[in-house]
Structures are given as C-alpha cells and as structure tokens.
C-alpha cells in the first residue's frame, strides 16, 4: 500500500479499534504516534502520550510538541453508554456529547488542522449513525454528528487537498462492546443477539476495522473523500 510520508496520529490507541489501527500502521513500517486518556500496555512499542481529547490544553500541548509533518489522523477515541432516552441521566448524556462530539471538534482543531497538504483524516463514527436503536439513542446522535462534521471538514480543508472520511463500524469485539454485553443479565445471549443482526452472523474483529481504516488513509483511496464507509458485515441494509 502507498501512503503519504509523515507521521500518523491515532486517538484511542490504547484499546480496541484504535489499538488495532496503531498495530497495522506499525506493521506497514509507518511512523505512528497514539494518544489516549489511558496508558498503553507494555507490549506497545510505538510512542504513546496521555491526552484527554475533551481537554483543549492537552491537545494543544501535544500538537505543539509535534515536530514531524502529519500525514494522517485517525480519531478513534470514544465511548458508548447505553440507556433508554426516558431514563438516561443528564451526566451520561453530557459525557457522551463531550467525548464523542466535542472530542472530535478539538482533535480536528488541534491535530487535523496540522495535517500536511494531500494528507488524510478518518473519524470513527458508527453504523448507528444510520439505524435507529432504542438502546443507545444519544450515542447514535453523537455518531450522526461525526458523520455530518466530517462532510463539513472535507469542504473546509479542500484547498489543502486533505481527504476527510468517516469510518462507520458495526458491532466489533472490543472492550467497549464486551463491557456492554457484560452489563446484561446474559452476556452470551446479548452477544448472540448482536451477531444475529449481521448478515455474516458474527462481530468484526478490531483488525478487520483497522484494515478498512488503513485503506482509507492510504493512497489507494485517493478519490474517496467526504464519504461514510460502513463496515458492518451487512447490517444496515436489512
Ligand atoms: P475501546 O473502549 O476498546 O477503545 C476506546 C478508547 O478510547 C479507549 O482506549 C479509551 O481510553 C479511549 N478514550 C475514551 N475517552 C477518551 C478521552 N476523553 N480522551 C482520550 N481517549 C479516550 O472502544 P472501541 O470499541 O475500540 O471503540 C473505538 C471507536 O469505535 C469509538 O469511537 C466507538 O464509538 C467506535 N465504534 C465501536 C464499535 C464497537 O462495536 N466496538 C462499533 C462502532 C463504532
């Protein structure tokens, strides 16, 4: 695969999809730096910095220190909280909005604006931006916001020829989804219920979503811009 030269920044690089993307970029022998509110485990050999994506000063300090040109950005940091709209409390709604939406704005402001001309940015949204769910309506709304934001960013950065896309995964076997399954009375049943909604009858592995992100970052996707790529094994179509 061909890539722009420069460093690739991945948010949410300590776990799940973000971590798989860091590993794939490293395997491609690219320069990669991850940031996350959580420290990485010791098996991560690439540079990792503690940054809260809702904290503007953290992001500014991080981006001010970057000396290398940025070739690409993947913003994967995010949370999912489930709950019916009738019972979800305001603190949880605010947390979702802050991390998923405000975090995307701040990452775009402090890291995205520093991407060199011709670079690429991928914001991780979700298939739930496109389908209704009573289980996590506020989360879905935050992911819909990311999809809309990405389109505007692609327009904003057109003079710099930066491609900006949303990656919308379906159910992916990560600590985020495992936590949600574990909250239900029968985690195995909850997992099976998610799998039954997918034509391939299984959840994605983080590496499969990482492959899609790598494609979107690469020059192989040189004409893909302002797009939302749904990687859900066939869920939203039926
Ligand atoms: P995960 O919980 O395994 O990883 C998310 C990472 O984001 C964690 O390392 C966490 O520490 C980090 N993070 C959370 N808040 C942060 C903050 N304020 N600042 C910096 N880092 C922060 O989850 P995942 O499943 O890998 O999810 C990655 C992205 O993919 C999320 O945006 C999620 O909404 C999205 N997504 C996940 C699924 C799924 O089924 N797992 C499906 C669709 C979309």
What is the N-to-C order of secondary-structure elements (H for helix, E for strand)?
Answer: EHEEHEHEHEHHHE
Structural class estimated from helices and strands:
alpha/beta
Radius of gyration: 17 Å
**SS field, number of helical segments:** 7
Spatial order of strands in the largest sheet: 3-2-1-4-5-6-7
What is the residue-mean pLDDT, rounded to a whole number? 97
Number of strands: 7
CATH level 3 topology = Rossmann fold
- CATH class reads Alpha Beta
Question: What is the CATH superfamily classification?
Answer: NAD(P)-binding Rossmann-like Domain
Spans with pLDDT under 50 lasting ≥5 residues? none
Please report which band the strand proportion falls in: under 5%, 5-15%, 15-25%, 25-35%, 35-45% or over 45%. Answer: 15-25%
- Tell me, briefly, the overall form: globular
Could you characterize the architecture of this molecule?
- With 238 residues, the chain is of the alpha/beta class.
- It has one domain (7-170, 206-231): 3-Layer(aba) Sandwich (Rossmann fold).
- The chain is 39% helix and 17% strand.
- It has 7 helices and 7 strands.
- It has helices spanning 16-27, 56-65, 90-110, 137-156, 175-183, 187-196, 206-217; strands spanning 7-11, 31-36, 48-50, 70-75, 115-124, 163-169, 228-231.
- Strands 3-2-1-4-5-6-7 form a 7-stranded parallel β-sheet, with helices on both faces.
- Helix 3 links the parallel strand 4 (70-75) and strand 5 (115-124).
- Helix 1 (16-27) crosses helix 7.
- The longest helix is centred in the middle third of the chain and has 21 residues, at 90-110.
- The chain is globular.
- The two termini are 33 Å apart.
- Nicotinamide-adenine-dinucleotide (NAD) binds at residues 12, 14-18, 36-38, 52-54, 76-80, 99, 103, 124, 126, 169, 171-172, 174-177.
- Keywords: Oxidoreductase.
- This is Dihydroanticapsin 7-dehydrogenase.
- Belongs to the short-chain dehydrogenases/reductases (SDR) family.
